[in-house]
Structure prediction request, 167 residues.
Amino acid sequence: MITIKSKKAFSMVTAIFVIVIMATVTSLIMNVTGKIVKETTQQYQKEQAALLARSYTELAILKVLYNNGASCLTSFSDNFGAETGFPGYTIRVNIKYIGNDTLLSGCSASIDPSGGVTIPNATWTNNLVDSFYSTISLIVDTYVTYKDFDDPQKRDITFHRRTIQKL
Prediction:
């Protein structure tokens, strides 16, 4: 026969068991929520860096096109978002010119047009070389550096975008 004292003890054990189960489920939910927030933050930062790299690549091409005969633009840098309270993004853009030196108006080309162009297992004819050197192309390397919010060591992450643009 069960007495009133044993009923109270059974209720106490049941309550403790339910509290332990609820605490375990709550900690599991909090852990998953924290991971989701961290992943969302990292994805946001990477997408922002990709968009900045694309924008600054287009800005570099625009600056080269409207340089007004000044010396060749080879690099520039900028900061974005530092005034909003977090470290922000540091953008560096490097520009290299490819093409005929006479068309570059004072810039030095990366390839010498007077030499033959040989690629393994293929040799270009003079017509193809001449048509290549009748244009100017740019190689634009854009580096966007930022700090991960959740990294305790505050290491830099760099997003790199390389673009070849024919002018």
In short: The chain has two helices and six strands. The longest strand covers residues 136-147. Residues 108-126 have pLDDT under 50 and may be disordered. The chain has one domain: 4-166.
